[in-house]
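Re: the request from the purification team.
They wanted to know what the chain is likely to look like in 3D before they choose a buffer screen. I agreed to run a prediction and write the result into the notebook, where they can find it.
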Amino acid sequence: MEPEPTNNDPPLPGPSDDDDLVDTAPVFLQENEAEEVQVDDSVPIEDEEMDSNMDTNMDVEVEGVAPGSSDQMLEGAEEEEEEGEVALPTLTLDGHRGPVYAMSLVSPSPGAYYLATGSGDDTAGLSSIDTATGATKFETLPGHSESVAAVAFSKDQTLVASCDYAGTISLWMKAADGLPPPPASSSTPDSPAAPTTYKLDRTLPPGPTDVEWVAWHPLGNVFSVGSTDGTVWMYLAKTGAVMQVFAGHDPDNGDGGGVTCGAFSNCGKHLLTGGGEGSFRIWNPKNGLARHVFKDGQDNCQFTKGQVTCFHQNLGASKDIVAVGGNDGFVALVHIPSKKTVGSGLHHSPEAGETSSVECLRFSPANVVNGNLLASGGVDGNLKVFEIGVGGGNQSGLLRSTASHKSGGVTCLRWKETTGLDRALYTGCADGKIRLWDVRPSTALVLKVFKGHEDMVLCLDVLDNVLVSG
């Protein structure tokens, strides 16, 4: 995203009269409000005021990063990316027999972790990890018939949702507290044993097709899934009931791809989705209607002209800002209360015939520059870090740091959340390596290069001092 001249930048909109859009008090659907909604794609969705009540053989690698080691790593770091300290995985979990497409990491107790994974071998997996002893246990979560593209733990860690390209949605209930000891041999897709850590709670009735993603509500056991057919379904986990169906993304328009990404807003009052037809939508979870649609050329909106590939919400001082990326290299900053784009630009300006898709966006944690650093990574191999302003400042995006991955595109990224180095992040790359960058200098310094994957890195997660990749 190349910064625009600051003297022409629009200021961040102030408080709006549209108070029901401001993320202030948490709003959550009551269980008795759940009802099944029939989909009618022929009926257009109108804007309505928001209700305020409302590689085959790829491994999963686990790397424990020692707290306080950042300053030591920084000393003597070189600009050339391959000259960083080389690290091998602390643990390798090889239960899957296909690419790992998705993962979700939680910690039930200090030093203990559960890792849910989705794979191209048509299975989901659940790994138990004890970082103190190095003990691990892998269990296959069976029942899927196509690639599992989405997995996620509920906020209270009692449930795991796994979703596949056949439309199968399974919910797994935590069986007992604590980290179980690893068995003599772990379960594999070739010889699956019945899972014991999380057991099947229910498989939902047929609904969406080709599920791309799953997102849990931040305040309770409600979740949504997005499909290539252009619909989003919201479920009550306790009963499996359909609470709402959101229709509006057109899978046959533009680049296609249906609903490519989605999440609830930080407070849970809104559902946010991006589509293959190039729109980004704010939905009312209570009535299923679109509160606003961001699309290039609509209401003088400057937006991606291609497919929405990713978005991320600010978790710091500017929590109402969402960064949205497209497969044409365009990045827009969306302000939810005012329903306006407050900044835009290009992650990369492609040459003729060159691809420029933005593959990942991530705001820094709230304790790193108030959460107002935005990192973007793309297939062009570039990592860029922008400072977008705090509070009511302008949102042009001041370029702070850049890094070039010489051997492949950036597929995923995560900020380092531990204490010590205050501006560091991990990138996963098409060359199968993960790099830890110090993004304080204008040209980022590579601190570590994590090796071990034989094919491109498709997903990353970070929690405490543990980095996992697939």
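For the purification team: The two ends are 27 Å apart (CA to CA).
Please add any questions underneath this entry.
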